[in-house]
From TrEMBL:
UniProt protein name: Uncharacterized protein
Transmembrane segments: 7-26, 55-74, 103-125, 131-149
UniProt KW keywords: Membrane, Transmembrane, Transmembrane helix
Entry superkingdom: Bacteria
Organism: Salinibacter ruber
Amino acid sequence: MKYGTRIAYGVIGGAAALALTLWLGASNSEVAIVLIGILDWLPLDRTVVLNNAEAAGVFAIGSGVGMLAWLVTGREAFRCLGQRAPRAWHLWRRDALTSLIPVLKYTALGLLMGGLGAYLMQYLWGLWTTAYSAGLAAGAFGGAIYSATRSRRGSQMDFLEANQRYINDENVSVFTETEKP
């Protein structure tokens, strides 16, 4: 396992442990009494620690929602507008496709997903506190970085298979699979 992955798992595990502890403290009075006793023992101001822990939890929730929103809408929008539509346009210009429908399909799907993502972020932005909004931005940015590092470039053949009804058979030789005796 890579060193960066170990650090990421450690941070996620620490955040989950903190969230679980805070949830238990908020829902169970005995746990809350123990946590208050621990906070009294520490040489820190209890109010500051609780406010910072709350802000960290809200930021974590916001970053999770932002990452999820990116993976649901933004990644597909950028994939359609940045990879598939230009590839379809390039193939149509080279007369490999007989119709502009794949270009229009991927452009419309990319714009639709981008608009849905913008509406979703506009709806979610400012829903809670500034820590939540900052978490949304950080989560979307983290999702974009994740998508950029894990992007899978499909082959030309995959793209042609997805749009096989629009292939110009005279200009593109498509191999077909035959049964072996």
